[in-house]
Amino acid sequence: VHATSRGEAVFTPGLAALLLGEYNRLSGAGEDGSPSLTPRETEILRLVAKGYTYPQIAERLVLSVRTVQNHVQNTLTKLQLHNKAQLVRYALEQGFDADD
């Protein structure tokens, strides 16, 4: 506490790098620090961006609506977004609505 109050480093550079690496691993970030979505999360994100509802996505991918909701929630967490509107905006900005 005293070292911090004097503006001194609390962690050694090696420990700080280890902590940041672990944070990235747990948050699902890739090596470059960007979020790493699973293929299924990416597929569902594309469909959300195209305007499909959760029931439509579930039917199309032969999943339960709850599974689709779970994938969307995981994606929101990884991207540090708070709601579906922010998710759609992100997806559109990243071109996830484009046809392959």
Task: Outline the structure in words.
The protein has 100 residues and is mainly alpha-helical. Helices cover 63% and strands 0% of the residues. The protein is built from six helices and no strands. Helix 3 packs across helix 6 (84-93) and helix 4 crosses helix 5 (65-79). The protein starts with a helix and ends in a 7-residue tail after the last helix.
Low-confidence parts lasting 5 or more residues at pLDDT below 50?
Answer: none
Could you tell me the mean pLDDT? 84
Class inferred from helices and paired strands: mainly alpha
Query: What is the element string, with H for helices and E for strands?
Result: HHHHHH
Number of contiguous helices: 6
Strands, count: 0
Inertia-based shape: elongated
Approximately what portion of the residues adopt beta-strand conformation?
under 5%
Radius of gyration from the alpha-carbon trace, in angstroms: 18 Å
Note the quaternary state here: single chain
Profile the largest sheet: none
CA(first)-CA(last) distance:
54 Å
Q: Helix proportion of residues, in percent?
A: 55-70%
Features:
mainly alpha; 6 helices
What's the short version?
This protein has 100 residues and is mainly alpha-helical.
Topology:
Blueprint (H helix, E strand, L loop, with lengths): L1 H4 L7 H15 L11 H11 L4 H8 L3 H15 L4 H10 L7
Helix pairs in contact: 3-5, 3-6, 4-5
